[in-house]
Amino acid sequence: MEIWVNAVRWCIKRIPRGPMASFSDLPPPSPKFHFIVDITLSTKERSADVSSVISVLITQKTATAVAYVKRGKGLVRVNGSPIELLEPEILKFKVYEPILLLGQERFANVDIRIRVKGGGHTSQVYAIRQALAKGIVAFYQKFVDEAAKKEIKDILVHYDRSLLVADPRRCEPKKFGGPGARARYQKSYR
């Protein structure tokens, strides 16, 4: 922001003033401010790209996953690393379920970036899995066609409804008078 303000001040100082002034009297622009034009162009290009990106927010227990889906080459990344490197190894198949159900060809022209934080390993994996499924459904709804979206949705729901429907269960807080949320301490009458 400060660079932009300095550039504007520099330009204002060089505006010709007076009755006989013309813009042909302006000195050539300083080379140090050429990059400002590039910055403004790149932000305009970025804003055009933003309209072609779909974001989906998923919460599973205390884990939160955000999936960004856009047209691309078929890359699927979780927290910046490829999905193949996801840990723990035992739960990796759960994340692959939407891809295996729908087939690689449906993911071939789509790039998916997923950011996940909070919770434990299992709830993160289930949040990623749901973000993948809901992200691809939302992408097909907005950019492809309704029939393809319905077909994808039917396949996913027929296999496992939790791929598209959130699980609202949360851990109930402990209360006084007992060791847990509902259990009470033992009571003796004599």
Automatic annotation (TrEMBL):
SUPFAM superfamilies, per database record: Ribosomal protein S5 domain 2-like
Keywords (A to Z) from UniProt: Ribonucleoprotein, Ribosomal protein
Species: Jimgerdemannia flammicorona
A Pfam cross-reference name: Ribosomal_S9
PANTHER family reported for this sequence: RIBOSOMAL PROTEIN S16, RIBOSOMAL PROTEIN S9
Signal sequence range: none
InterPro entries in UniProt: Ribosomal_Su5_D2-typ_SF, Ribosomal_uS9, Ribosomal_uS9_CS, Ribsml_uS5_D2-typ_fold_subgr
NCBIfam families: PRK00474.1 (NF001749)
Molecular function, one GO term: structural constituent of ribosome
PROSITE patterns, per the entry: RIBOSOMAL_S9 (PS00360)
Classification via Gene3D superfamilies: 3.30.230.10
GO cellular component, one term: cytosolic small ribosomal subunit
GO BP of this protein: maturation of SSU-rRNA from tricistronic rRNA transcript (SSU-rRNA, 5.8S rRNA, LSU-rRNA); translation
Descriptive protein name: 40S ribosomal protein S16
Family the entry assigns: Belongs to the universal ribosomal protein uS9 family.
